[in-house]
Amino acid sequence: MAKYLLLKHYRGAPAPVNNVPMDQWAPEEISAHMQYMADFAARLEGTGEFVDGQALSPEGTFVRYDGEGRPPVTDGPFAETKDLIAGWMVIDVDSYERAVELAGELSAAPGAGGKPIHEWLEVRPFLTGPPTITE
Amino acid sequence: MDEVLLRTLTPTVIGILVRRGADFAAAEDAVQDALVEAVRVWPDEVPRDPKGWLVAVAWRKFLDAARAETSRRRREVLVDAEPPPGPGEAVDDTLQLYFLCAHPSLTPASAVALTLRAIGGLTTRQIARAYLVPEATMAQRISRAKRTVSGVRFSQPGDLGTVLRVLYLVFNEGYSGDVDLAAEAIRLTRQLAAMTRDEEVAGLLALMLLHHARRPARTGPGGTLVPLAEQDRGRWDTRLIAEGVDVLQAALAQDRLGEFQAQAAIAALHADAPTAEETDWVQIVEWYDELVRLTDSPVARLNRAVAVGEADGPRAGLAALAGLDPALPRYAAVAAYLHERDGDLAVAARRYAEAARSAPYLAERDHLTRQAARLNARLRG
């Protein structure tokens, strides 16, 4: 088994095919989308492949150390050009192929007009501890 | 086996061990161990005197731990100190325990965790799951909290205000995992209310009961948020409402108003309305005036603006909103609501979308996005 992070972006990923902001959808289309996401997570729990899923607020701040005795420096809210992560799901699956298959299904979540969003999701393998047998 | 009975006995038994000379941290550990043993043994045979059983087992666990950790000399002092159960054990130190677990030297997160363990009798694992943190993290939080209060004398008078804030925090966390924190907060507040005549303890209990009564109606299919005006009032728990109103009336009769009583009064007025349209908004505005006077809280002022909008019309609500800081949480959502009532759908839709972006909870964000979508659909016509 291997863990993968499925990353969803507010900004920074290529534009999806069905690119309509959610507040322009019909209310029942929003409900259908939420239901699809919940069903997807429930199904992965059922198959023993779900680890975690979280959504992030669009508000964020870059912070760095600014030397002894000084408060950290912050650059305030993200500038418009920066990559912005909306949320993630962690899955634990048998293969990379399975991770890609699941990301594809998640990207098919319905959006405006009830049609799939075709949203770009990023699939990132976790770096884990080395296996016991390495040769 | 009655797990709630077991958990109800937890603070009493800790108190008895402390009176026998154990320090709080060790007593608390020993009682946790005894609870684990009770869960294992009681299903076969529930002891005739559950409290006596727990005291005996916890005291033995405490001595075992003391033997393992302290010198022979210290141990003898402890063994000598073991008194026969006597009149001293009739005193219930549960109230003292509430004060200790909500001691002002603790951070809110630590006080919450310690309260749930030492008074609620929950295991570290249950608390960790309820707050979605790893068990080891929660164990550290609890043991650090115990170290922080280790110098506090048990008999020192405590601050009820901090206790109430801790219980309020537990209640507001709602429910996740296998422990219903809202129900647990009510149980602990009920227990506290039975030990003191303080009117704000009663006020908080009433507030919790009245909000808990609405819980079945508060979420729709898939966990969607159902706003107060749209809730199916037939699903409100009338028994809890009746109890909450009784508790509140007894508190108000003491004529020492506090913020929890004022909040409970507002909740009671909502509970009292057979339909959303029949809500007595004029009286609700008056209670918000009291609340603002008592707390000077910007959040209370924001909620007051909503009530003013209902009582005197959306323009009056918007005027009440005008003086407040737009950076307040939910400011945009309130503005959106009032603008919609005022017929300005375009502005309302924009403010709802803005509110969704800054919403602190997922269900709230989805709800606000839906509101924006609903208005945008109407605007497209």
Characterization of this structure:
With 135 residues, chain A is α+β, with helices and mostly antiparallel strands. Chain A has one domain: Alpha-Beta Plaits. Helix content of chain A is 24%, strand content 29%. Chain A has two helices and six strands; from the N terminus they run βαββββαβ. Chain A has helices spanning 27-47, 96-107; strands at residues 2-11, 50-55, 61-64, 73-77, 84-93, 122-125. A four-stranded antiparallel sheet of chain A has the order 2-5-1-6, with helices on one face. In chain A, strand 3 and strand 4 (73-77) form a beta hairpin. The radius of gyration of chain A is 18 Å and the shape is flat. The model of chain A has no long low-confidence stretch (mean pLDDT 91). The model of chain B has no long low-confidence stretch (mean pLDDT 91). The N and C termini of chain B lie far apart (61 Å). Chain B has helices at 3-19, 24-41, 50-69, 72-81, 94-101, 108-118, 124-130, 135-148, 160-172, 181-193, 199-213, 215-218, 238-252, 259-272, 281-295, 298-312, 314-322, 331-341, 345-357, 362-380, and strands at residues 175-176, 179-180. By secondary structure, chain B is an all-alpha fold. Chain B is 69% helix and 1% strand. Chain B folds into four domains: 1-92; 94-194, Orthogonal Bundle (Arc Repressor Mutant, subunit A), CATH 1.10.10; 197-272; 335-381, no CATH class. The radius of gyration of chain B is 24 Å and the shape is elongated. Chain B contains 20 helices and two strands. The interface between A and B is medium-sized, with 17 and 21 residues.
Short description:
Chain A is of the alpha+beta class and 135 residues long. Chain A has helices spanning 27-47, 96-107, and strands spanning 2-11, 50-55, 61-64, 73-77, 84-93, 122-125. Chain B is elongated.
